[in-house]
Every structure is written in structure tokens, then in C-alpha cells.
Model the fold of this input.
Amino acid sequence: MDQAEHLIRNISDTALLAAVYRARETERQDPLFRDPLARRLAGQRGDQIAASIPFSERNSWAWVIRTYLFDQFIAEQCQHGLDMVVNLAAGLDTRPYRMALPTALQWIEVDLPGILSYKEEILGSERPVCALERVPLDLSDATARRELFAQLGRRAAKSLILTEGLLIYFRTEHVRALAADLAVTPEFQRWIADIASPGLLRLLQKNMDPSLSQGGASFKFGPEEGPGFFVPCGWKPIDVRSPLKTAARFKRLSFGMSLLSLLPQSNGRQGSRPWSGICLFAKL
Done:
């Protein structure tokens, strides 16, 4: 655990974990997706971080399935007149390079300057399939993000927002404020987010927080309301997909987790049961 604390210097380093698991998925004989850039982005530190967090290693399927389900939602939404994707806390995501996206699509990546600079250094010679733009911004700066949202709204007719692996690091009041800020922009029509139940949040806090907290990456958000948390903020859940059941369908679970996947799916209020959902929200 001490090793992990030294390896994870800040919250951006969690992006290396995501890249490692995308790389490993790509190297499988039966990958659910291919990301030929992930191995370069993860680097040696990515593998070191992953090896230092046994709980994450045992549950690497969750990282893979989250990516897969986000991919599915994005591909589907691109069939409905989408002209912009705004990826908040984009990290080391490579979808503008690896997915079959419309060439005219505007893809905006927003994240801290350090992680975007690292990404530019690694991917500088690569060519995205759509119109890619990177915006260095600290999303905790509410004034700056509102200004950015307003600017992006003037450039698009129908935008999709992505917050993959982001909300769990925010306090409840900060998630509520971000959701409200997104709802103000009329052109932001759809939003894909992953959320956890209070039970899963506690499980992650117990097994992963000691490794991440030194880098300022503690887990905080697991709403009891489930996807319904976002309705008062202006967002209605229209599709919720279960990572656990998806992983079971692809036979990626241990025996014990496979048994857990047989329980009925509940997308309503959540409690002590470990649950997560990849949610597609529509503007109310």
C-alpha cells in the first residue's frame, strides 16, 4: 500500500490505471474493443500502479466494461444527429482515434493542463478521426467551466457530455452544481455518466482509498437516490446499463461475482448492496 501511495502523485495518475486495463483488453484474443494507443499512454508507471492495488487488479473487469458501455452509448448517440462530444476529465481517453466517429464531429477534451500535456507528447504524431480539441481547465473552477459551457453551446446544436470515472471523486454538492451547470446550456442534450451505490462506495473506500488518497483522489459520491439523483438537477435517466450483468454476459467474472450478477437489477434507490450503473441522461 505504501508503494501505491508513492506511485499515485495526483488524481490524474488514475488515468494511467484506465489506460493499463484498456491496453490489456486490447492484447486479449477476444477483446471487447481495441485501443492500440493505450499501452504507450499507460507506460511502465501504469503497470506499476495497477500492480500496487490488488483490489483493482482482481476487479479489472469493471474498468474494461465501463469503457465498453461508454463506447456503446457514444456509438448509438452518434446515429442521432450529434455534432459535439464534450469529454469532461478526459484523462487518457483515445476514442477520437480508435472509434468510427463522424469526421465532422467536434470532440472536446477538458482536463487539467498536466495530463493534457502528457497526452499531447505521446500522441502528437497521431491523427484523430474527427475534429479534436483539448481545453486545459480545472473543473472545480465553477466560473471557468460555466464560461466554457456557454462558449461550447454556441458552437453546436446537439451535444453529448461524457463524465467517465469523474463523479465519484466529487462531493455530493459539487456533483449537484456540475449537473445544474450542464443543464443550463440548451445544446447539451445528452449526458453519459457512471455512478455507484452507497454500498459500492464504501467497498471502494475501504479497498482503494488508502492507495489513492495521498494523491487527492478519494472516493466521495455514491447517491442513495441512484440515477434519480439527477432529476432535480434537470437530467432524466433514459437508459441505465449494468456493468456487472454485462461482464457476466461476456464471462469476465469470478464464480462469486457471477452469482451476484444473478440478482435482479435495480436502477432505483440504492443502499448497502454494491451496485453501479452506466447511465444515459436526457435534458428535462
